Amino acid sequence: MSSPSIPKILLIDDDADESLLLPLESAKRATVRTLHPNEVEPSDLREADLVLVDYGLDRWPERDNLPQLCLRPVDGLALSALLRRHARRYDEASPTAFAIYTGQIETIASPLPPENRLHALAALTNLEWVFSKGTPGDTQTLDQIAVLAESVTRLPPRWANGDAPGATALDELCGLLAVAGTEELSARLRQEVEDALPPIHELSQWSHGLAVLRWLLQRVFPYPCFLWPISSLAARLRIEWPAIADALRDGMPLRRALIGTEYAGILRGFSGLRWWRASVELWLWDNLAGQASNDDAVYDFVCRTVEVTLPRSSPNRRPLVCLNRDFEPSPQFSSIDDAVRIRPDGWPSYAEQAWVTLQSAIAEPQLGAIVMQEDRERIRK
Prior knowledge:
Blueprint: E1 8-12, H1 22-26, E2 31-35, H2 42-47, E3 50-53, H3 61-64, H4 76-87, E4 97-102, H5 105-109, H6 118-124, E5 129-132, H7 139-154, H8 169-176, H9 183-195, H10 202-207, H11 210-220, E6 227-228, H12 230-236, H13 241-247, H14 253-257, E7 275-276, H15 277-288, H16 295-306, E8 339-342, E9 354-357, H17 358-363, H18 365-368, H19 376-380
Parallel strand pairs: 1-2, 1-3, 3-4, 4-5
Antiparallel strand pairs: 6-7, 8-9
């Protein structure tokens, strides 16, 4: 992929603390402009790659004094919807992503648990993402904002629609995702990407490619599918999750060994590191051949690679990643004998099976209610 231009971020806030975003400008990761809602002009939307809108717009007397209800967007969600439709009018311009930037995540999210359901909240509110205002120096949120803004600048000006010879929409998407490897591996990765139902035809044409960013943010990164989060990688390598996190730091032997399997495409780093599932499996096969499914062989190989004995997963035979009551991956693995399958709302068909521990399904009614029919008898015993 070509290097992106420095993205332009527009912050719309009735009482902005501009110091929160200053580090992005200092690091030359973005240019940031802050405006009160009264000051926004069409040109501001046209030029912005990412628009951040405050949720609580309480200091806006010009709006509050209007008698017409339809001219009074009640909060940042309503204002974002209005501005998105205005930005949509500039078809010749580059796409503009929208996100809420607020210290009131809990208010917006209720009754969803906000910590790990931001992807669901963004989807429900027609946004690319919902960011929580932190304090000056909150590097995690700033990194996410910068990554999203940079990714908008990487979107192609026009998506292939199949009407002309040349690259297909899937080709363009795989370029954005940095699909690489041998011909056989690339073909497998492409197939897994396509199986995950990317919106690369009518929806990407209509949304100027923003649908692809949403797909990654809201339908791929939150789930174990063709891209694995660290919890899935740890389970596959038969290593305890906290221990493998240290082994995957920059420059460490395991990180170097897995470099060809690490996701390096658009939005990289937004939700932590990710690894191509098929690439990891091929890496194990290339090094272990017929022993790639042998728990002992996999564990011993990983320890030899890092040149240190890492804590082995518990259980050490086919550990499962289970979800907790907030649908977060639990740091403690489980065995298939101590787990049941669930069907959470919105869980994609292309994602790997979701599991919870048998104990959690019995103790937590909201988890017991979504246990798959075939496993329900086990929670009644």
